[in-house]
Amino acid sequence: MKIITTHTNAGEFMLILTIRTVLLYAFIILAVRIMGKRQISDMQTSELVITLVISDIAAIPMQDTEQPLLSGLLPILVLVSLEIIVSVLMLKSNRFRKVICGNPVIIISEGKILESQLKKLRISYEDLYSLLRQQEVFDVSTIKYGIVETNGSVSLLKYKENEE
Amino acid sequence: MKRLWVAIALLAICFGIGIYEYSAVSKNEQKITQIIESAENYISKKEYKNAYNMSRYALTQWENESKNLNVFLLHSDILVVTENLHTLCEYAQDKNADEFVKICDKTIRQLHSLKESELPLIENLL
């Protein structure tokens, strides 16, 4: 009886792994280029999740040669396409953008922390102070407005010197 | 806007590949099942030579198509069917009718489950 194996020897297996990795690398670069240029810190939460999911999906057929390469490429293509479609729709419709990204939330107003908003966002005082310190703010009363953006970053509007 | 059309085209390609895959699996399942069934008929009439030829034909057809199917399906799933078809040829050569019929049924079930797993049914989707 003819012995059937997927890979006849270890060398061939490694060669296949290498070629698959090169192909996936090229494909991921292409996918990221199609998705557009954005730094991780500028990404919306959904975009960040999609990016993480894509890297996860790509890893499976890269390591497991039993899986057809298409089983990794196809979901990545679908995710990239959906991501582009959603981002275009967000540009076209504000309402759609609000559904996907939510609204910016004011957490500091006239130098006072809005506790109710913090609770809604599940941000603790410690987290807020840490975020403020990262922006070199050590006194909340110097802030006119503090806004949590839809991507999770905090924008601060400080009082002008004569305004305080 | 150009990017949107690229995205829609990519989605269409993905669906196209999915549909092509299903039709390829379905077509091969039907073809190989028919050949195996006719081999089973020959073995029931004790025509071992014809049963062997049909098994061999099924194996050749499957091996030719498996190059294409390996692009879409788990390689191990395809390998199992290939191994069964090899075994089928051996049993036909050895004139072991009982085992031949058993392997025929097993292979047909495997082919059927391969096809079923490609259907966009709720159980497969979930």
Q: What is the averaged pLDDT score of chain A?
A: 84
Going across the biggest sheet of chain A, name each strand in turn.
2-1-3-4
Number of helical elements of chain B: 5
Provide the β-strand percentage band of chain B: under 5%
Largest sheet of chain B: none
Distance between the termini of chain B: 34 Å
Q: How many strand segments of chain A?
A: 4
Mean pLDDT score of chain B: 90
The largest contact between protein chains, plus residue counts on each side, is: A-B, 22 and 25 residues
The rough form of chain A would be described as: elongated
Main beta sheet of chain A: 4 strands, antiparallel
- Can you count the beta strands of chain B? 0
Your description of this structure?
The complex is a heterodimer of chains A (164) and B (126). The model of chain A is unreliable at 1-5 (pLDDT under 50). Chain A has helices at 10-35, 45-63, 70-92, 94-101, 115-121, 125-134; strands spanning 105-109, 112-113, 143-148, 154-158. The termini of chain A are far apart. Chain A is elongated and about 75 Å long. In chain A, strand 1 (105-109) and strand 2 form a beta hairpin. With 164 residues, chain A is α+β, with helices and mostly antiparallel strands. In chain A, 57% of the residues lie in helices and 11% in strands. In chain A, helix 1 (10-35) packs antiparallel against helix 2, helix 1 runs parallel beside helix 3 (70-92) and helix 2 (45-63) runs antiparallel to helix 3 (70-92). Chain B is elongated. Chain B starts with a helix and ends with a helix. Chain B is 88% helix and 0% strand. In chain B, helix 1 (2-44) runs antiparallel to helix 2, helix 1 packs antiparallel against helix 4 and helix 3 (75-94) runs antiparallel to helix 4. With 126 residues, chain B is an all-alpha fold. Chain B has helices at residues 2-44, 48-69, 75-94, 97-118, 122-125. Chain B has 5 helices and no strands. Classes of the chains: A alpha+beta (164), B mainly alpha (126).
